[in-house]
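Problem 12. The chain below contains 191 residues. Write out its predicted structure in token notation.
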Amino acid sequence: MRVICVNTGTKYSQWYVDNLKHMIDNYSNLKYNKFEVVTENRYDDERGVFNKLLIFEKFRDGQNIYFDLDTLIKGDCNHLLREEFTLCSAHWRPAYHTPLNSSIMSWQGDCSWIHDKFMEQMDYYLLKYRRGMDQFIYEVIKDYKLYTIEDKFCSYQTILDEQDYVVYLFNQRNKEMLNEGWYAKYFKSNI
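Solution.
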């Protein structure tokens, strides 16, 4: 079993990688063999979000679970392990936006077909999907399952206080993670 994250570009310092590993090791109860960090910046779009697709090219066997670096983990995550490719229902997003989110993804075996599909028309997809990889998966891939709110995750964009969720997705509020909010007690000591 492997835990995966992606850290390309300069948006996230090493603290975010170390912090994710700290939470995995201390709160998630995930028994993993490898903690993988993808740093290759192959798809140099201005946001770097399509580099996340490299996880499907690189990790083609075993059980896999991916977390964004701007994530808070404060409890058992074994219920998030899935055989079929699964990502988050973005229940917090406005209706006009993509209704799924790739902050947590899990799959077993080979899902390289997702990356292969992107490569078929890479330049076109980079231009068309301005909202990023989530939009690409929603509009092109379509073969996925969704975590729901019953899977005990939420977005910090809509739920700011500590509640009974196992995972909080900070969704582009990574700088807020460095503040002394209620969530800091779960983090590796700040920079």
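Discussion. Helices lie at 14-28, 54-58, 112-120, 122-128, 133-141. Students who got a different answer should revisit the alignment rule from Section 12.3.
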